[in-house]
Amino acid sequence: MCIKILKLFPKIPDIIECENCCKEAKMKFLLVAVVLMLELVCVLSIQRKTKNCKRKHSDQPKVQCNQTETNTCLNIDVGDKTVGAVARLSCPDGFNLIGDDNIVCLDSGNWSEINAKCDPGDEIGGINVQSFGGSRYVFVNFTQKNYSEAEAYCSDICGSLVEINNKEEDDYLMATTQSLNVASFWIGLKSNDGSSFEWPSGNTIITNMYENFEDQTYAKDKGSCVLAYNNHDGNSRRWEPFVKEFCDENKKHFVCELMSG
To answer: Which residue pairs form cystines in this protein (predicted)?
Structure first.
């Protein structure tokens, strides 16, 4: 029996011939067996924990970034939405990208802040692109459109129909259009509900605390729009509201205010 045990475990002294030594060999065998069993238990335990850990992490959903912020001017090319993914930014034809050309998906599940804007080239309005008070304007005296067409035109060149926030801006726009031989022009003030007027930004003549209506009895129809007169034809500088039918049927010059970013 002792010799068989020794053959199974060659690390035990190679040959044990005497009975007294056989007992010692049995003890060593038992010790080795215990050690091997403990090692096996340890290995199995580690494997089980590793497997459980992998399963736990694999069950957790991967962090993905939400929809990028809306920007009607910048083109945002989003492919992968996992953490570390990069979305590329570009501008429409005729515009130059100024700033960073990408944003990154962050650990928070949000995209990094957009630090870019589209700047119009000479082909977008040419010399009619002018600046005042931190804003940029395109004075469209080279074509005429009805109100909704004018809105669409401004949107296509990364802007909106002009929003007039104070008298200084109003005077600037009136004087500039007059110098361009534009007697009247659409502005971004319109009535969406038939009871109040609102600018493209959501501001109103109340929140902006400025308006230039000559007659306080405004057109209250849903879809009413506003035309600005600049005294070019002898009329006083003023805003005048018109019902939707007039806005749809009449083509006028207009001013676009470009997005700042």
So the answer is: 91-118
187-218 exposure pattern, b = at least 16 Cβ within 10 A, e = fewer: bbbbbeeeeebbbbeebebeeeeebbeeeeeb
Q: For residues 121-136, give the mean pLDDT.
A: 76
Q: What's the residue count for the chain?
A: 261
Dist. CA 14–CA 86, nearest whole Å: 66
**What gap in Å lies between CA 76 and CA 99, rounded to an integer?**
14
| Same domain, residue pair 223 and 128 | yes
Based on the fold, state whether residues 48 and 93 are members of the same structural domain: no
Using pLDDT thresholds of 50, 70 and 90, give the confidence band for residue 6. very low
- pLDDT tens track for 45-66: 676 766 665 555 555 567 889 8
**How far is the CA of 192 from the CAs of 37, 237, 244, 256, in angstroms?**
81, 25, 10, 19
In a domain, 64, yes or no: no
State whether 17 and 95 are in the same domain.
no
Beta bridge partners of 227: 186, 240
Half-sphere exposure of 140 (CA within 13 A, CB side): 27
CATH number of the domain that residue 247 is part of: 3.10.100.10
